[in-house]
Design brief:
binds s-citryldethia Coenzyme A; 3-stranded antiparallel sheet; 430 residues; globular; mainly alpha; single chain
């Protein structure tokens, strides 16, 4: 393989395929001309080895456990920034100046309300409706109430992003209030992005909610850690749906639906359900370990394993540290934290998991923090979606602005069905 090309030899012919190097060293064989030149396609179920695009937004190194947004390490961003600051970075590509950050904050405040007609939608979901189905529905409906926006300029992109980031926060809080039958608490101009969300969730006419700085700081950190993760399932969904020319709101709604899956963002809810199961089973860890190892059992240990990370998910490391700190600050004792830490210890000392590089991922400890904040388990994936929104918007926009390589996403397949055969009329069929 030369520096610039790979040579593929099939039967008696050789094909030169360009090599592409990423700015942080990832490498790819460019197969865009393969079918035209050789008649062959590649097959890669689950896209384990296949890149769908080139992107400037996020860099992951699964072997080293590295995650950078626009070149900045997640550890530094989580330590020093607000979620809104990181959202601006993921969207625009540069950290905002103080003026740019204040302007963005102003837009978020301006767009915090949802159309009053949208509020009636909440009355028609059944009481036990999943907050993820409500979120996906309401986000899709935004397209009927607000103008379609492009991200052709940074200014336009920031407007459409501020509208979505702000309204999704309001939709999430309103869906919770509706689910518990409490009066809606409207956003306030004087509160920060995270402070407003917490206040809309937990303030009550009979008992005002005190916005706790430690909780706000931890929520900022959690949302930052979820802000983007390159071509994961839901982001790839947003890109694929958007590639058909679908508006941003509807593309994001598709991303919300993909994130809901227990193998993806739904895992943070599944982790708590699993830990509660272990607790109900008197901490019978072995029962869950055996189920996870049983090749005939589809059960997986939620919160462990990752398609890309084959070492600690750097986000899980930060969240685990924040876990103990937040529970201490809130004076919350949660037995599930001890169960989670014991399960992690068992897994990290069991060859089945070690040999498969199965480590805690972003979803393993996050739910324990959300619980301590008072957020219900069925809203944990909504929290993931709120955090992931800057990434979804930025990837949708990067694809839409890619004049050089923008085309509808349409994978190929290898057909293994019946060979061509003639039609048999009904009266001749047995
Ligand atoms: C997220 O892609 C992203 O970036 C996602 C995400 C993001 O920020 O967008 O990081 C967020 O989705 C994190 C992942 C949350 N999901 C879970 O925690 C669900 C539990 N994890 C697994 O289902 C699994 O690890 C996946 C889905 C995360 C990854 O699956 P892969 O890459 O397809 O790996 P695999 O299923 O082929 O597993 C390889 C082996 C198999 O065993 P063998 O066939 O070799 O015998 O590892 C085993 C699997 O059975 N395995 C597990 C396991 N995860 C993998 N066994 C037990 N428990 C697990 N959790």
């Amino acid at each position: 393989m030369s520096n610039k090309h790979a040579t593929l030899t099939i039967e008696d012919k050789s094909y030169k395929l360009p090599i592409i190097h990423g700015t942080e060293g990832d490498k790819a064989v460019d197969i865009r001309s393969l079918r035209k030149e050789s008649g062959y396609i590649t097959l890669d179920s689950g896209y384990m080895n296949t890149g769908s695009c080139q992107s400037d937004i996020t860099f992951l190194d699964g072997e080293q456990g590295i995650l950078n947004y626009r070149g900045y390490a997640i550890e530094q961003l989580a330590e020093n920034c607000s979620f809104i600051e990181v959202a601006y970075l993921v969207l625009i590509g540069e950290l905002p100046t103080r003026t740019q950050l204040n302007d963005f904050r102003e837009q978020l405040s301006r767009f915090a309300l949802i159309h009053e007609d949208m509020i009636h939608f909440f009355d028609h979901f059944p009481p036990n409706a999943s907050p993820m189905s409500i979120l996906s529905t309401m986000v899709n409906t935004l397209n009927n109430f607000y103008p379609e926006m492009t991200g052709d300029t940074d200014e336009e992109l920031l407007v459409v992003a501020a509208r979505l980031l702000s309204k999704i926060r309001t939709i999430a809080a309103f869906s919770y209030k509706k689910s518990v039958g409490h009066p809606l608490i409207y956003p306030r101009y004087d509160l920060s992005y995270c402070g407003n969300f917490l206040n809309m969730m937990f303030d009550k006419p009979v008992k005002p909610y005190v916005v706790h700085p430690e909780v706000v700081a931890t929520l900022n950190k959690l949302l930052i850690l979820h802000a983007d993760h390159e071509q994961n399932c839901s982001t790839s969904t947003v890109r694929l749906v958007g590639s058909a020319g679908v508006n941003l709101y509807t593309s994001i709604s598709a991303g919300v639906s993909a994130l809901w899956g227990p193998l993806h963002g739904g895992a943070n809810t599944a982790v708590i359900e699993m830990l509660e199961g272990i607790q109900r089973d008197n901490n019978d860890f072995q029962k869950y370990i055996d189920k996870a190892k049983d090749p005939n059992d589809r059960f997986r240990l939620s919160g462990f394993g990752h398609r890309v990370y084959k070492t600690f998910d750097p986000r899980a490391t930060i969240i685990k540290q924040a876990c103990s700190k937040t529970l201490e600050a809130l004076q919350v004792e949660d037995p599930l934290l001890n169960i989670a830490m014991e399960l992690e210890k068992i897994v990290r000392n069991d060859d089945y998991f070690v040999s498969r590089n199965l480590y805690p991922n972003v979803d393993f400890y996050s739910g324990i923090i959300y619980r301590a904040m008072g957020i219900p388990t069925n809203m944990f994936t909504v929290m993931f979606a709120m955090g992931r929104l800057p990434g979804w918007i930025s990837h949708w926009n990067e694809m839409m602005q890619d004049s050089g390589d923008r085309r509808i996403g349409r994978p190929r397949q290898v057909y293994q069905g019946a060979k061509k055969r003639d039609f048999v009329p009904l009266h001749e069929r047995e």
